[in-house]
Amino acid sequence: MAKLVVFYSRADENYFGGAYRYIEVGNTEKAANMIAAATGAELFKIEQAEPYAADYDTCIEQAKKDLQAKARPELARTLGSLDGYDEIYLGYPNYWGDMPMAVYTFLEAFDWTGKTIHPFCTHEGSGLAGTERKIQQTCKGAKVEKGLAIHGSSVDGAKAAVEKWV
């Protein structure tokens, strides 16, 4: 059985420990690439059909509004099935103490019975914030392992921590 790294990540303007900075590759995507390299897993990026704004302040307001509404944004594309994958590494930024709502859109589309999920997130101080429990509640029948939280502003130096975790 194969491994899969599924992740939601956002480039554009991001927040790094008190300052805004434009990035071309999102922090979670950088971590996902490290995990794929360490495990030989395939990659799948969760993308919204209507992405959030490029500027950070507008983006977080959009994400907060979706969270409050428990929205399930439409995805640009999805996988037909998770058949053939037994281990899934699930990555996301921590938005308002939770996963982006598009991650829930993805998770709710599949039967997770018999799958093992390894959650990982990027954050600027909130850590995993209970998302492991939320994944377990959403992905009935899956085994959810202990997750990895990476400070987004430190992701470029996180290779050793990622390799130890996997």
From TrEMBL:
Coiled coil: none
InterPro entries in the cross-refs: Flavodoxin/NO_synth, Flavoprotein-like_sf
Molecular-function GO terms, alphabetical: FMN binding; oxidoreductase activity, acting on NAD(P)H
Pfam families documented for this protein: Flavodoxin_4
Residues in Flavodoxin-like domain copies: 25-165
Signal peptide start-end: none
Protein name per its UniProtKB record: Flavodoxin
Lineage: Bacteria, Bacillati, Bacillota, Clostridia, Lachnospirales
